[in-house]
Amino acid sequence: SQEEKVQVIIQHWIRILKIKLGWIHEFEKLVINYVSSFVLFFLNINQNIQMFIKHSAVNSIDYSTFDDCQFICSGSLDETVRVWDVDNNKQIQSFNGHSDYVNCVKFSSYHYHNYHRNVICSSSIDRTIRFWDFKNNRQLQIFNRHTSDVCGIEFSPFNGGRYLCSGSGDKTIRLWDVETSRSLYIFSGHKDA
């Protein structure tokens, strides 16, 4: 079966790389290549495969720990952003604020380290970047200066993640200050999304 093939591939991969615990960034590629678009797989501490069937198709996932709890967030073609509790193997939150496909999701280290808030940032074809407080179940901020779909987002590895870069179908990259919600700079020059 497809599940057995995926399990063999993942176990072999783990054995080769001698992975103990933690997130594997190449895992997204493995999910895309070997798993149907209706299922999100991930590894738990015992390296068993767990399934969550909620999304119609997953575009992006991210992993983080907050207060010794492990979480995965996911963004989907069903226009939702979801949060999963890894330790309890269940969905704990779903946000429906985007009006089109969610392209990218990231946990915000900036909000956690500065305000002790559990926040996810998501980007969408609807031209927005949204911040979600998943512990308090509310939307915090919206960045809406792109003129086309926002394909990807990435927090800065410096200044505690205060800065966010976003790439868009409008052929630009924007640099944002998360603290002030301002677009600081627009990088132009790409000829396509």
From TrEMBL:
Signal peptide: none annotated. The keyword Repeat applies. SUPFAM superfamilies: WD40 repeat-like (SSF50978). WD repeats lie at residues 70-94, 95-142, 143-186. It comes from the Eukaryota. Keywords: Repeat, WD repeat. The keyword Repeat applies. SMART domains: WD40. This is WD repeat-containing protein. It comes from Reticulomyxa filosa.
